[in-house]
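Appendix B. Extra example for self-study. Work through it before the problem class; the solution is given directly after the inputs so you can check yourself.
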Amino acid sequence: MTPIRQVVIAGGGAAGWMAAAVLSRAFGGRLSVRLVESEDIGTVGVGEATIPQIRLLTGMLGLDEDEFLRRTHGTLKLGIEFAGWGSPASRYLHAFGTVGRPLGLLPFHHYWLRARQAQPALDLWRYSLNARAAALGRAGRQEQVPRGLAQGLVHAFHFDASLVAGVLSEYAQQRGVTRVEGQIREVCLSESGDLASLELADGRSIAGDFFLDCTGFRALLIGQALGVGYEDWTQWLPCDRAIAVPCSSPASPLPYTRAMARPAGWQWRIPLQHRLGNGHVFCSQFMGEDEATALLLANLDGEPLAAPRVLGFTTGRRREFWKRNCLALGLASGFMEPLESTSIHLVQSGLSRWLALFPGAGAGLPEAAEYNRQTAIEFERIRDFLILHYHANGRTEPFWQAMASLAIPESLRDRLALFRASGRLFREGEELFTEMGWLQVMVGQGVIPAAWHPLADQLDAGQLAEFMTNVETLVERAAADLPSHESYLRERCAA
Ligand SMILES: Cc1cc2nc3c(=O)[nH]c(=O)nc-3n(C[C@H](O)[C@H](O)[C@H](O)COP(=O)(O)OP(=O)(O)OC[C@H]3O[C@@H](n4cnc5c(N)ncnc54)[C@H](O)[C@@H]3O)c2cc1C
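Solution. Structure tokens for the complete assembly:
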């Protein structure tokens, strides 16, 4: 492979414009970047909730966070509340950031497990700053870690996806990216089998050295032109439809996403400054589209602002993400339901991995193989995390019973067995979700370890009680110091 001088991005959804913005920032004018998009085809137009890593992107691009939220009608997100998953009445927050504070060699939850022997109702989330702030409706940017805590408030964003694409598009074009409006009619290969050019419906030809396939579910380059297959994960995650509808927002925005279990899937609720984003993800084997739409419309907190839109999907991933001179990003690379808001992050981490492996002279095959290896692991660990939410459910509807009895991947089975036995959790390599994420979902859905690490017995009962009270007090004080989410948005980033 020769050094890359001309990159062509096919597709101008969130994936395409994120790629364009990042390339324009990383290379300045030293790389020619053209992006082809079609207004007639449009974008998927959903994708409103993120995870804290999104701030690495805004930071890398040098965007002012308040200004970004103002322009995208965004709000702060401290976690995701799961309602009705562990049992119909249960509720827990998968809060970002840490829970408690490590002591000695041990993570906090071993002390919590020991303390709850005497107090079975002792709530894990009393020790999470993010969870306490969310419960109080408080949120803000915390530049310094409050004294005595291991971490301060950790936040992500909710935003209007179409406005984000606009911000990134403007950013990239100001830094030299060329936008080409047009429909790709054909993808041409060279004699060697590499991608050579995109042929547009109006006769123009866009040639390049390297192509980013950001054409969404169509996967025009990686799937259709290069014939890379798709690994179907429906056997583990059988939901295959989503219905999306925005509605008016009757109250001030909550600083977290809601994911509410429904008889054959779940409903999301994403608070923006000016409206709520809602959607119902469901399994078509267990519920028809009409019933799913009616259920969604009956459970909105405001008036619908548009007609509901149905989106079909197959959960899974491309067998290769990088093939020859083509890299697939976004929906073209695979799809997992937005239960933990991971898709936009996967675009971001794909880009950063590609930049780390960016081909220079002589580079090519080993870099692609390494990219594919790392990305496959990242996708698979997220897949396991999503399966956990369905597997550990305490509901009685046929869909949920079927989900609880589905065979799970060995990697998840082993992780669950270790945690159930003695509360031990380990993050593998560059896996996205931390031990804290796994801990909260397991405990929140009723997976409680039978024992704790023996080192937690080093403290006597008085020391243990003092430590627990101490941490709780520190969390409570830090939460009380935060502004209300509403006033933070009003004063710093009102749209
Ligand atoms: C129901 C649902 C909910 C989601 N919620 C979240 C969420 O909360 N958080 C999250 O992180 N992610 C979420 N996602 C995923 C997120 O929406 C996507 O990862 C993100 O928007 C990136 O999409 P994309 O750019 O890959 O594809 P798209 O937005 O579909 O863009 C594809 C682009 O390719 C162009 N194109 C296609 N064919 C042609 C052609 N022939 N010629 C020219 N141009 C063409 C289109 O015009 C468009 O510009 C959700 C996805 C779905 C389906």
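Self-check: The first strand starts at residue 6 and ends at 10. If your reasoning did not lead you there, revisit section 3.
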